[in-house]
């Protein structure tokens, strides 16, 4: 998988795009086209819940209908956001608190996305294969997220 090319493609499609919503929508479509052996890819964004506490809400994605709200610290996504750390999970069934949106998912990677120095959302990718995401995939996806963050910084 050529993650440098993927990052360049993201750069190209974000050029001149002033809004974050279409940027994330096309980023999800780009990842869905480029990555083999995945069944869900998309974004969860940080928002305040009715009590003003942070939670994750579903953003642009490709895949089956998914959970819409995830509590801070819950599941793989909530853990990645709360810990501000990439979660690369070889077997989601062994991850305490994993939230099963699509029963086909067996492994998952979640990467925090920052804006203005804080966690703004996460990129979540699921696979039907166990241990689909290698350390090299993690490096490549971290590059993708860095390019995405740079593009997001220029959007409203
Ligand atoms: N499995 C995730 C929930 C989101 S779905 O995979 C789309 C989790 O445990 O956070």
Distance between the termini: 31 Å
The helix count comes to 4
Q: How much is the average pLDDT?
A: 96
CATH C-level class is Alpha Beta
Order of helices and strands: HHEEEHEEEH
Derived structural class: alpha+beta
How does this model look, in words?
The chain is α+β, with helices and mostly antiparallel strands and 156 residues long. The termini are far apart. It is globular and about 40 Å long. Helix content is 35%, strand content 28%. Helix 1 packs parallel to helix 4. It has a single domain, classed as Beta-Lactamase (2-Layer Sandwich). The longest helix is centred in the C-terminal third of the chain and has 19 residues, at 135-153. The protein has a 6-stranded antiparallel β-sheet, with helices on both faces. The protein is built from 4 helices and 6 strands. The structure holds methionine sulfoxide. Methionine sulfoxide (SME) binds at residues 40, 66-67, 70, 75-78, 98-99, 101, 105, 108, 124, 126. Methionine sulfoxide binds next to helix 3 and strand 6.
């Amino acid at each position: 998988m050529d993650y440098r090319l993927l990052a360049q493609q993201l750069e190209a499609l974000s050029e001149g795009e002033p809004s974050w919503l279409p940027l994330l929508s096309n980023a999800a479509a780009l990842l869905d086209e480029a990555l083999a052996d995945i069944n869900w890819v998309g974004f969860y964004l940080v928002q305040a819940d009715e009590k003003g506490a942070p939670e994750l809400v579903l953003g642009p994605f490709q895949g089956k209908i998914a959970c819409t709200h995830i509590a801070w610290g819950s599941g793989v996504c909530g853990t990645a956001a709360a810990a501000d750390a990439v979660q690369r999970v070889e077997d989601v069934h062994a991850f305490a608190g994993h939230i099963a949106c699509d029963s086909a998912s067996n492994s998952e990677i979640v990467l925090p996305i920052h804006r203005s120095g804080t966690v703004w959302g996460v990129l979540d990718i699921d696979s039907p294969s166990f241990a689909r995401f290698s350390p090299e995939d993690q490096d490549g996806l971290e590059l993708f997220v860095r390019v995405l963050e740079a593009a997001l910084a220029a959007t409203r």
